[in-house]
Task: inverse folding
């Protein structure tokens, strides 16, 4: 890390919206000594429908903003940006960059003995086949399954609702039916909204199947990479709460975001990013 | 109408995506003599999250495109554009313009005796309060209810699914509970995806409540306004199938769109609209 204060790194988390807050939530207890910046490009979400060029331009402007504000480690919590623009982001970054897809796939590789993996994601993530490509390079047989109802269900606040339980059960049944030839023993949650449905998934995956939560494994990997700082920082006094930057309504971010972060959100500032 | 051929008007239908196809579907049998242009700004959907200025700019560029291609009557089938930009569209148009919100509200006024109306729509439409304002001007007491799961359910192809049945039942229960003070006798479907759920709604609205389908009433109103042409045109030979212009993938439009239109879609051309 090229931080001026290596015992207290500043970690910049970027997402197109709210989902990345589950990644931040998983990181907070694991890297207690850090300062946190979160940038949600909420005015331009969803990224899923946008071209590779556009996503790369938006993502690069976002991480430049985070670097200007002191980030010395970047977590790309946005699946679309990780799928379409990680190379461009790394080329533009002056600090280490971690993307959710690579960490998710690495964890699936570690978890799977059958080499058969199911990846669940949004329609856009699945259409990009970013997970399938990364899994294939890692020697996994992958079945991707688009689950377009899950993000709206989470955003409706229905994470614990029986309708959601039913929808998750149906999606998993369809995914396992489609993946039968690969003998899948691992399900990778390839969307940062899905950690909020972790218990619902756990109820419905067949016995012996491992659930890989990309928020969780990204947090573990970030902690490993920043590891050297943790012990030093853990002994310090508590650091300030995360600082949030959003490109759309700060009020909406606060109210919807608290569900994702699992704790109150303060310090939200509206910012304009270049087109 | 300022058409060069008043017996065969060219009707331009504009929407941000697919939903407007339900309006087109309702119009086709009612205005048999017309030629049809449909423009779906699919690359820039959803409009719901965009600012009034942006929506107005997009909508004006879309209707200019339709006019350049011969439209002499414009139907704004997009709720967001009708809510945020109808004045700007009218100012820019050289032909008559019909918006889904005004026709929906006029139909609700005609249907309701209690003056209590429930309007169902997307989160963005409800947040704009465009229906509430238009209803209040017309002397109606309105309860708006956001139903964010319904568009994803329709787009998932689950219009007939038991999950959708359950979600519609829950939304209607919540809406009627919230509207109890207004004694609502009319439910206005304020989203162009909802006509595909018409039968589901019909199963769950209380007895004596009228369901107003904005696609249907927009078609009736368009036919009235163009009325003079109909009889002349009805005697002519069948005219060509609608011509479709979309700003994103033509293949995706074709496959998803046929469900909304209820018939095969051909003649889809990709177009670029100015930013």
Result:
């Amino acid at each position: 890390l090229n931080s001026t204060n290596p015992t207290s790194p500043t970690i910049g988390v970027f997402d197109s919206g709210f989902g990345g807050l589950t990644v931040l939530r998983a990181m907070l207890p694991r890297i207690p000594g850090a300062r946190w910046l979160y940038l949600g490009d909420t005015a331009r979400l969803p990224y899923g429908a946008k071209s590779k060029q556009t996503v790369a331009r938006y993502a690069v402007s976002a991480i430049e903003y985070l670097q200007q504000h002191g980030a010395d480690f970047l977590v790309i919590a946005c699946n679309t940006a990780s799928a379409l623009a990680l190379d461009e982001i790394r080329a533009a970054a002056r600090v280490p960059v971690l993307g959710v897809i690579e960490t998710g796939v690495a964890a699936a590789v570690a978890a799977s003995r059958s080499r058969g993996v199911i990846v669940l994601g949004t329609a856009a993530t699945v259409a990009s086949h970013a997970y399938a490509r990364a899994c294939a390079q890692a020697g996994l047989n992958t079945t991707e399954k688009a689950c377009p109802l899950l993000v709206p269900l989470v955003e409706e606040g229905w994470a614990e609702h029986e309708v959601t339980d039913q929808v998750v059960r149906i999606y998993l049944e369809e995914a396992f039916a489609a993946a039968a030839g690969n003998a899948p023993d691992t399900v990778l949650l390839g969307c940062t909204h899905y950690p909020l449905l972790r218990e619902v998934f756990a109820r419905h995956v067949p016995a012996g199947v491992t659930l890989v939560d990309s928020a969780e494994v990204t947090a573990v990997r970030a902690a490993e990479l920043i590891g050297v700082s943790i012990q030093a920082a853990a002994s310090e006094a508590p650091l300030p709460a995360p600082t949030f930057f959003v490109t759309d309504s700060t009020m909406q971010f606060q109210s919807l975001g608290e569900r994702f972060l699992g704790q109150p959100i303060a310090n939200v500032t509206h910012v304009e990013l270049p087109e």
